[in-house]
Amino acid sequence: MDKKKNGIPKLRFPGFTGAWEQRKLGEVAKRVTRKNKNLESTLPLTISAQLGLVDQISYFDKRIASLNLSNYILLKKGEFAYNKSYSNGYPFGAVKRLNDYDKGVIPSLYIAFDPDNIQVESNFMETYFETSLWHKEVSTRASEGARNHGLLNISPTDFMDINLMVPKLKEEQILISNFMHNFDALITLHQRKLDHLKEQKKGLLQKMFPKKGEVVPEVRFPGFTNAWEQRKFFDNIEKVIDFRGRTPKKLGMEWSAEGYTALSALNVKDGYIDFTADVHYANQDLYDKWMVGNDLYKGQVLFTTEAPMGNVAQVPDNRKYVLSQRTIAFNVDKTKVTNDFLAVLLRSQNVQHTLKSLASGGTAQGVSQKSLSQLKVIVPINPKEQQKIGDFFKQLDSLIALHQRKLDHLKLLKEGLLQQMFV
């Protein structure tokens, strides 16, 4: 029998036995309804899935004079808030605690509450609100309310009536919350390392390519002194492989359960291929009908034309791939440019800015081959300088991809732990 059905988590610290107990949120926390009557705070807050309850004055500053903050709920450090309306686009079930400020104000569309630390440890509750169990329970309650009120939201009464499963002993609650807090700190550390590497790369891309109107970069490898030259982008390209709009259905076929991986704008990331994102496969017949002899090769540059526009990666190996939605590939003129340098060139600041100016469309901007024909680039004449630049950024991209994989692994591990350590 599944231990979880008996109120016992699958993964537990040694020395703790027995089932967890079911409590209603309203039994272990009291709703906060105090108004900001005396204007104790002029700090409007909102829920961010990444940052919790955060300062949004930059958003409010043009309207803050007209806001009647005395009617807002006054929230104090350590208290929680939940946006009760699903229609406002917040992650359903997202509850966040005010950790960074002593006081703040939130609109009445939030449900605010303060935990009773004597019964349930506040840090444990913060972790509990990240579990799929909690999100499922809130979603179920809101769906039930929708049948009665016609709007997918949840009333404060129903919200405070939601069931929680908590350990009877505070000691177990504290161990769990401390463990998950340390795990979150590890994730944050890896995220900072990754962000730092990306910032370093951004800075190097600015310094190792000439600024607008110049022909010599600020930072250069030793032994190279010649000025770079301006060319039309397509002067460096022999062929563009572009299957814009092609789908299996249009070819009278379907994706397969396995086979050749499709590369699209959803898995061609900035500097690497994400083989876990929206993966589709083509069998041999679909591959032959789709690629019609245009086999991709290791190192070949891939470019996403839309949604998102401007991501650049290289084919990672000599396996066969299908070039899918909103992604094109370049066959370079090897006498003029190397693949590795082209991959970096397309991500340089000047080129990215120019691409945005050439892009068309509203929310989902994109570039066509016609737009790319207007692109001009600055390129080192010496192919050895090109290769050194390409090699340098390829190694940096590999390091960034390694840190990204580690971070993704930690997040998946946390998700698994939340599933197994809670009931």
TrEMBL record:
Pfam families: Methylase_S (PF01420)
Residue ranges of domain Type I restriction modification DNA specificity in the record: 295-411
UniProt keyword annotation of Hydrolase present: yes
InterPro entries found in the cross-reference section: Restrct_endonuc_typeI_TRD (IPR000055), Restrct_endonuc_typeI_TRD_sf (IPR044946), Type-I_RS_S_subunit (IPR052021)
Origin superkingdom: Bacteria
SUPFAM superfamilies registered for this protein in UniProt: DNA methylase specificity domain
Record field: transmembrane: none
Molecular function terms from GO: DNA binding; endonuclease activity
Keywords: DNA-binding, Endonuclease, Hydrolase, Nuclease, Restriction system
UniProt GO BP: DNA restriction-modification system
Family membership noted in the UniProt record: Belongs to the type-I restriction system S methylase family.
Protein name (database record): Restriction endonuclease subunit S
Species for this entry: Ligilactobacillus saerimneri
